[in-house]
């Protein structure tokens, strides 16, 4: 006999299975819903959010010849595009990663899907300005970054002073104009490293300064001490600094100062005569022997024009075996030296150091005499010669024998000095006679014995 399943039993089992399935589905649906929601949100994100800039564009300062890079970062770009423009005239330079300008120095680098870099090589002064990073959203979005192109200083020779010459006592102004970015600073210094001598405002006093700042260097009532080469130095912290040399010449008539007016020397010695000359422009200097030099010119003396009738014609001395002539120049000063070799009676007399330039003429006079040394007498030592030289210096201290075409000639009274010399030489002679008499008496007493 076959068994038959009860319909009621199968129905109950099916209902139980369905309930279990519903429970399982409900649990699964509760656990998967958040994940599905996140997935839907992630799929809708690019569509819902607008592009935005990340940070700002940093401004750049760079000297000419270098390169500059402006960086623009964007997030959530999506379907939009990024372009670079020049802010001043809205010229499009690049779109996305493609350069559209014809300037070969400009390029664009696109990095990590969100960074665009505008690169300008071999910077020129014309590249100075601001640049715009733009997103073609609606409304349009932009950021601006600027490039400051620094230019080293340069001196404008056409607007600056050249070498100048001014007469002593006049005013002078030397100018130095420079360009660059930032604006250059102009500083004046002496080329030789010495202090500058500048006059105090509303004063005749000169003060020493190491440097002067300014494009115009004003020098009122110039003195010869201010003569020299000046350097105009322009700098603006962008290397290299530049400089210009301006030579300032102060012109004046010669002045002559002999180191001694009266010199004595024994026969056979070499005698050195010296004069100090100050003159600008550079003078012509020479030595004369004999006669008396007139204040007009040596040409007059050469033609027989003398102060006293019968005065011998001055002789121009030349460097050679008998005379040694040298000159040492230091700026506007010149040291003239004359060496008379193997001093003889013919060399006794007056010697003149003469200096002349376009502004005048001056001379100094020295008298050279013989110091006689008697056989067996007191020897004239170097100390005695120094004493004689000191007396001559004392006489010179009472005045300057130098004459100039701009000043009257002054006569110096050397009689006291000459008298002292005569007394000194006489005392030496007396000591010689006494010494000789003493020797004779001694010999006589020896003979009597």
Topology:
Elements: H1 7-48, E1 52-53, E2 60-63, E3 68-75, E4 82-86, E5 91-95, E6 98-99, E7 106-111, E8 115-120, E9 129-135, E10 141-155, E11 164-167, E12 172-175, E13 178-181, E14 185-190, E15 196-199, E16 206-209, E17 212-213, E18 216-219, E19 228-235, E20 242-258, E21 262-265, E22 271-280, E23 284-289, H2 298-302, E24 315-317, E25 323-330, E26 333-340, E27 349-357, E28 360-370, H3 382-397, E29 403-404, H4 415-448
Parallel strand pairs: 2-10, 11-20, 21-28
Antiparallel strand pairs: 1-3, 3-8, 4-5, 4-9, 5-6, 7-8, 9-10, 10-13, 12-18, 14-17, 14-19, 15-16, 19-20, 20-22, 22-26, 23-24, 23-27, 25-26, 27-28, 28-29
How is this structure best described in words?
- With 449 residues, the protein is of the alpha+beta class.
- The protein is 22% helix and 40% strand.
- It is built from four helices and 29 strands.
- Strands 11, 14, 17, 19, 20, 22, 25 and 26 form an eight-stranded mixed β-sheet that branches. Strands 2, 4, 5, 6, 9, 10 and 13 form a seven-stranded mixed β-sheet that branches.
- β7 and β8 form a beta hairpin.
- The longest helix is centred in the N-terminal third of the chain and has 42 residues.
- The N terminus and C terminus are likely disordered.
């Amino acid at each position: 006999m076959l068994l038959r399943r009860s319909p009621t039993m199968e129905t109950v089992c099916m209902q139980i299975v369905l309930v279990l399935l519903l429970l399982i589905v409900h649990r699964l649906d509760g656990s998967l819903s958040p994940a599905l929601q996140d997935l839907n949100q992630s799929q809708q994100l690019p569509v819902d959010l607008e592009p935005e800039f990340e940070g700002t564009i940093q401004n750049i300062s760079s000297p000419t010849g270098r390169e500059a890079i402006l960086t623009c970062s964007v997030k959530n770009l999506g379907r939009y595009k990024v372009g670079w423009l020049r802010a001043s005239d809205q010229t499009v330079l690049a779109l996305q990663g493609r350069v559209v300008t014809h300037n070969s120095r400009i390029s664009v680098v696109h990095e990590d899907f969100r960074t665009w870099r505008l690169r300008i090589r071999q910077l020129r002064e014309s590249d100075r300005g601001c640049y715009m990073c733009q997103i073609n959203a609606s409304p349009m979005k932009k950021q601006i970054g600027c490039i400051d192109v620094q230019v080293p200083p340069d001196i404008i020779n056409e607007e600056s002073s050249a070498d100048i010459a001014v007469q002593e006592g006049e005013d002078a102004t030397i100018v130095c104009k420079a360009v660059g970015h930032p604006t250059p600073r102009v500083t004046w210094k002496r080329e030789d490293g010495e202090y500058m001598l500048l006059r105090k405002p509303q004063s005749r006093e000169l003060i020493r300064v190491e440097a002067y700042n300014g494009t115009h260097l004003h020098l009122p009532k110039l003195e010869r001490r201010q003569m020299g080469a000046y350097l105009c130095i322009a700098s603006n912290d962008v290397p290299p600094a530049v400089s210009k040399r301006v030579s300032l010449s102060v012109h004046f008539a010669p002045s002559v100062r002999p180191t001694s007016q009266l010199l004595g020397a024994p026969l056979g010695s070499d005698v050195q005569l010296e004069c100090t000359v100050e003159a600008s422009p550079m003078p012509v200097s020479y030595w004369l022997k004999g006669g008396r030099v007139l204040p007009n010119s040596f040409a007059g003396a050469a033609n027989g024009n003398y102060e006293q009738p019968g005065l011998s014609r001055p002789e121009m001395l030349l460097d050679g075996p008998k005379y040694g002539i040298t000159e040492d120049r230091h700026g506007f000063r010149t040291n003239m030296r004359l060496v008379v070799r193997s001093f003889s009676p013919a060399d006794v007399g007056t010697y003149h150091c003469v200096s002349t330039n376009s502004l005048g003429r001056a001379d100094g006079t020295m008298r050279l005499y013989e110091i006689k040394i008697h056989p067996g007498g007191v020897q004239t030592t170097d100390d005695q010669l120094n004493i004689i030289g000191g007396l001559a210096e004392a006489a010179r201290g009472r005045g300057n024998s130098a004459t100039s075409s701009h000043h009257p000639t002054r006569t110096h009274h050397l009689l006291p000095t000459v008298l002292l010399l005569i007394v000194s030489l006489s005392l030496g002679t007396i000591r010689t006679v006494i010494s000789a008499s003493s020797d004779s008496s001694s010999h006589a007493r020896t003979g009597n014995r």
